[in-house]
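Chapter review: from sequence to fold.
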Amino acid sequence: MEKLNIGKYVEHFVDWLSDAGEPVFRQITIIIENCVDVMQGALLSIPFYILIALFALLTFVIKNKSCRKLNVTKQNAKDIFDLPIFCVLGFLLIYWMGFWEETINTLVLVIVATFIILLIGIPLGIWCARNKKVNAMVRPLLDLMQTMPAFVYLIPAILFFSVGNVPGVVATVIFSLPPAVRMTALGIRDVPKEIVEASVAFGCTGRQTLFKVQIPLAMATILAGVNQVIMLALSMVVISSMVGAGGLGESVYAGIQQADVALGFEAGLCIVILAIILDRTTQSIGQKKEVAK
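The token string follows.
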């Protein structure tokens, strides 16, 4: 029996897409590359101690608002300072280990990838929640994107966008997109029908119901999706380094290639510190929205 060679058909499709879509891919490459370069240049031009202070201030403001919503008492008011203190100590450790530039590069790649994911994922999630046919078509694609080994995305990413930060960002977007779509759709669907019907009864249009009722009530779930997106994007930094993306992933990959345990551990520790800061910060925003709900 002759082997069914599905991969060949996919290869022909990717080759055709690579040729036909070259102008579009070139423009996407220019936009993403410029965004990454500008953000990295801007953040690295700021002295490290000022940037650390700004990060700590940002986390303090977010935690303070979150704890106020949760009616924090004086006894556990220390919770407000936990994250800013960890932020300062964590980033100082990263700086003293000599991975400051790589950490900022990784942070920028995660921010750019997350921004693109939310730009695509939230509207698509809203569309899925409001249209069953769209949801039926998108779900299998999300299953495929989420279960396909992440390394597979690197192959077409190289063909379309060459090597460097851009294919890394694109592969990260494909791998991390499903939670944004699923959680947005789930949050919109979970809004009680009685509330939606009441808004319609009071004369709200479909757009007003969506933006003034459904999205605010679904915001806690949407932010939980954002949290998952950021964590998945961080988990891709090492894989993305295989196509030339910079940052901490490149150092971890170099540690693997050179069997350098110290280099791999230090770069990995920096990724963990960055992940904890981003995770706790987005969780605090989500808690605030959950209480407001």
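Two observations follow directly from the output. The two ends are 60 Å apart (CA to CA). The chain has a mean pLDDT of 85.
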